[in-house]
Amino acid sequence: MPKQWFHNWFGSPYYHLLYNNRNNHEAEYFINNLVSYLHPAPGARLLDIACGRGRHAVCLNRSGFEVTGIDLAIENIAYANKHRNKTLHFYVHDMRSLAYSNHFDVAVNLFTSFGYFDTEEEHINALKTFNRALKPGGLLVLDFFNSHKILANLIPKAMKTVQGVNFHLRKHMEGDRIIKTITFEDEGEDYMFEEKVHAFTYDDFARFFKLSGFEIVENFGNYSLEKYDVNSSDRLIFICKKAHV
């Protein structure tokens, strides 16, 4: 079976170059706000699902928690492991088949690390594995883009130059997916990657959470944890509680 787009793109150094504006300062700001809101007990066990290179996991660990980060990209985990310590661990793992059961107090899935799979069933089953990994009453934080605002302001073509690389970005809708095509040239080589993310809405997530054993506790519209507004918010951030297995 050929690899899906996220297998190739998220492990590429060009992914991190394109999104280098997502820096440690932003991660620390968001994590500090989350910790203040959630108040996990000192030493609580936290799971960072699709942790990338570990910037959020590192911040959570510095806040005094035992943190496990999982990601599909071997390259990301190799990089994240530079920060590994006795209370911070990273593993290559697919979020759709987590092996944990009743283990974590809090799970986080941040920076639109969801919506990539082909079917709704796959997304619901992934959420069920998140649920199973949490202790009874455990919390899930899921951070997605506000698809309503994204679609209302969709820019079909753009270019972004980062460290001498000109990234040509094209976006369009295909069914209910936002397709971003990324093309560029570097050191005489041509590259092309795609991102394909379902434009899930609040109502979609409410249905998914109900079917996977979560109840929504709160939702926010940005990393300052201000109220979500469907027209103006950049993010759609859910705080959910494990209701049942």
Task: Give a written overview of the molecule.
The chain is an alpha/beta fold and 245 residues long. The chain has 2 domains: 5-146 and 201-242, Vaccinia Virus protein VP39 (Rossmann fold, 3-Layer(aba) Sandwich); 150-196. Helix content is 29%, strand content 35%. It is built from 8 helices and 11 strands. The chain has a 7-stranded mixed sheet with strand order 3-2-1-4-5-11-10, sandwiched between helices. A 4-stranded antiparallel sheet has the order 6-7-8-9. Strand 2, helix 5 (74-80) and strand 3 form a beta-alpha-beta unit. Helix 3 crosses helix 4 and helix 6 packs across helix 8. It is globular, with a radius of gyration of 18 Å. It starts with a helix and ends with a strand. The model has no long low-confidence stretch (mean pLDDT 94).
